[in-house]
């Protein structure tokens, strides 16, 4: 018998919403948490809580109140240090307290990847002051990519192209402003002129077998993905290398679930970039029925310890985001009716209650049979996403 577990989801965005749906369909009970009421995942959960997840005491309170069997983080910005305590209390943190805690800090994860595991990554150095920053930039060379250690979605991230006092100060200040909390440190990374970048969705399971989804290609702008497609055609050698790296890093971080492992593909081989210990936004392409199970169904099964006998590509597909342009509330969409007239096309609207420039509000999904050209499917998704407009008051 499938036992109903109480699951606390920390972060209730569009990815969380799809996960809740997958968990509900397996008979589970979900409490969705975020810092505002009406968040996408709350709309489909049994219960919800509104707290600041960076506040450890507020987290402790709701964990004590609900006594969940599992805690499932959907975002990085959580007081993850508390996860170790929850594990000690017998609660399963997904995929593990270590994975959630290490991946929220670029330093922790980069040092494990490059130093402990010897994975190929961009050269990097850290800096905690403007003086150290200048030294780091001089050593790494330009162009280089500068990121706050604690940030996501490209916040505070920029490419430094010249070593002048003015450019250094500008990039440093931007990183400080985009830094989460009062953590004042940056990573300076060698700029990798990659040919393409991929997400390798990787599933670690209770039975010990690690599974890989066909690679997903994507394109980023302002730190957020604009479109993703599956499969991304890459060489067998590159794929094997990426799978090997994904296997190594997920084993070290421990736990069961689906991970989004990001790589850069270059003439010199595959570079490990970073990873999410949970469904990845570029993996929304799997909502286009590209696989026998989408990434949320895979995560749900893996965290519940349920079998995943095989992952198959059943269609080629693409996703393209629909972004808001202005700040406002009560978003309204135009163009969806016309887009839905196209075959093999779907639109998922997230029902976010408010808008701001570049906020992701919906996604267009297109697919085609596995013999179809994935590039044309991608172009179609991009064109259709441009026909949808978000307005708000
Ligand atoms: N060293 C690098 N060289 C070239 N491009 C890079 C480098 N590091 C990052 N980028 C580009 O910036 C994007 C965002 O970087 P990264 O994934 O590290 O940031 P992030 O804020 O964690 O993003 P997210 O949370 O959305 O995954 C990458 O997907 C890639 O396109
Ligand atoms: Mg990333």
Quick rundown:
It is built from 11 helices and 22 strands.
Notable characteristics:
393 residues; alpha+beta; Rossmann fold; Dna Ligase, domain 1; D-amino Acid Aminotransferase, Chain A, domain 1; 3 domains; nine-stranded antiparallel beta sheet; five-stranded parallel beta sheet; 22 strands; globular; binds magnesium ion
Topology readout:
Elements: E1 6-10, H1 14-25, E2 29-34, E3 47-50, H2 56-66, E4 70-73, H3 82-88, E5 92-93, H4 97-103, H5 106-116, E6 124-127, H6 130-140, E7 144-148, E8 158-160, H7 165-177, E9 186-190, E10 196-204, E11 211-212, E12 216-221, E13 224-230, H8 236-253, E14 257-266, E15 269-276, H9 295-304, E16 316-323, E17 328-329, E18 332-334, H10 336-339, E19 345-349, E20 354-355, E21 360-368, H11 374-386, E22 389-391
The structure holds adenosine-5'-triphosphate and magnesium ion.
Chemical compounds bound to the protein: adenosine-5'-triphosphate, magnesium ion
CATH class of the largest domain: Alpha Beta
CATH superfamily heading of the largest domain:
ATP-grasp fold, B domain
Residue share in helix? 25-40%
Mean pLDDT, to the nearest integer, reads 97
Alpha-beta classification: alpha+beta
Largest sheet: 9 strands, antiparallel
Domain unit count: 3
Beta-strand percent range: 25-35%
Number of helical segments with 4 or more residues:
11
Radius of gyration: 21 Å
Q: Based on the structure given, which CATH architecture of the largest domain is correct?
A: 2-Layer Sandwich
CATH topology of the largest domain: D-amino Acid Aminotransferase, Chain A, domain 1
DSSP E strands, number: 22
Shape: globular
Low-confidence runs: none
- How far apart the termini lie comes to 49 Å
């Amino acid at each position: 018998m499938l036992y109903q577990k109480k699951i606390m989801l920390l972060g209730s965005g569009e990815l969380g919403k799809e996960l809740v749906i997958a968990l509900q369909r397996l008979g589970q009970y979900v409490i969705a948490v975020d810092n505002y009421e009406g968040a996408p995942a709350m709309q489909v959960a049994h219960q919800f809580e509104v707290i600041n997840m960076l506040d450890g005491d507020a987290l402790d309170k709701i964990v004590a109140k609900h006594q969940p069997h599992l805690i499932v983080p959907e975002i990085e910005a959580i007081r993850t240090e508390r996860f170790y305590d929850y594990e000690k209390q017998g609660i399963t943190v997904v995929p593990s307290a270590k994975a959630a805690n290490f991946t929220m800090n670029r330093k922790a994860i980069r040092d494990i990847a490059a130093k402990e595991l010897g994975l190929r990554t961009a050269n990097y150095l850290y800096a905690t002051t403007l003086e150290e920053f200048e030294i780091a930039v001089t050593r790494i060379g330009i162009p280089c990519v500068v990121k706050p250690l604690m940030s996501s979605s490209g916040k505070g991230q920029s490419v430094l192209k010249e070593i002048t006092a003015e450019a250094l100060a500008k990039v440093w200040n931007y990183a400080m402003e985009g830094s989460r909390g009062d953590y004042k440190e940056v990573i300076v990374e060698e700029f990798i002129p990659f040919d393409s970048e991929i997400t390798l969705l990787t599933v670690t399971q209770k039975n010990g077998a690690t599974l890989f989804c066909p690679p997903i290609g994507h394109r980023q702008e302002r730190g957020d993905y604009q479109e993703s497609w599956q499969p991304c055609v890459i060489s067998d050698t590159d794929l094997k290398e990426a799978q090997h790296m994904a296997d190594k890093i997920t084993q070290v971080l421990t736990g069961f679930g689906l991970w989004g492992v990001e790589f850069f593909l270059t003439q010199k081989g595959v570079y490990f970039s970073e990873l999410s210990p949970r469904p990845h936004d570029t993996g929304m392409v799997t909502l286009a029925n590209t696989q026998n199970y989408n990434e949320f169904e895979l995560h749900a099964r893996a965290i519940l310890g349920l079998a995943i006998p095989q992952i198959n590509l059943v269609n080629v597909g693409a996703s393209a985001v629909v972004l808001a342009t202005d700040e406002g509330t009560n978003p309204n969409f135009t163009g969806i009716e016309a887009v839905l007239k196209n075959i093999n096309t779907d639109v998922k609207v997230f029902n976010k209650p408010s808008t701001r420039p570049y906020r992701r509000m919906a996604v267009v999904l297109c697919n085609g049979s596995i013999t179809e050209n994935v590039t044309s499917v991608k172009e179609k998704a991009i064109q259709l996403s441009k026909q949808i407009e978000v307005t708000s008051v």
